[in-house]
Amino acid sequence: MPEIVVKYKSQRTLEALRDFAKYFDYKILSGNSKAKKAKQISLNGITIIPADPSIKTVDLSEIFTGSSIDPSQIRNEAWRRRRE
């Protein structure tokens, strides 16, 4: 279903939009509905929640720039299963 965002200033406007919703068949969601919309995915019994795209990762570039970090090496060393 297509979506639009309507910004309003007064409570009367919201009341009018709710009245119109009865006749024009649309839904009104609260202002924090984006946080609720984040789709949670379940993979092998583990819930995966999408990351917040508004987080700035620029400061992390100073830490990792110039480091010879190899993702495959990290996976092999840190995630290795140990037989017991």
The span between the termini is 52 Å
- What's the shape? elongated
Low-confidence stretches: none
Radius of gyration: 23 Å
Q: How many strand units?
A: 2
Question: What would you call the structural class?
Answer: mainly alpha
Largest sheet: 2 strands, antiparallel
Question: What series of H and E elements makes up the topology?
Answer: HHEEHH
Helix content: 40-55%
Strand adjacency order, main sheet: 1-2
Q: How many H/I helices? A: 4
Strand content: 5-15%
Provide mean pLDDT, rounded.
79
Describe this structure in words.
- By secondary structure, the chain is mostly helical.
- Helices cover 40% and strands 7% of the residues.
- A two-stranded antiparallel sheet has the order 1-2.
- A hairpin with a 2-residue loop joins strand 1 and strand 2 (46-48).
- The longest helix is centred in the first third of the chain and has 14 residues, at 11-24.
- The mean pLDDT is 79.
Task: Describe the secondary structure blueprint for this structure.
Elements: H1 11-24, H2 33-37, E1 41-43, E2 46-48, H3 58-64, H4 71-78
Antiparallel strand pairs: 1-2
List keywords for this structure.
two-stranded antiparallel sheet, mainly alpha, 4 helices, 84 residues
Short description:
The chain is mainly alpha-helical.
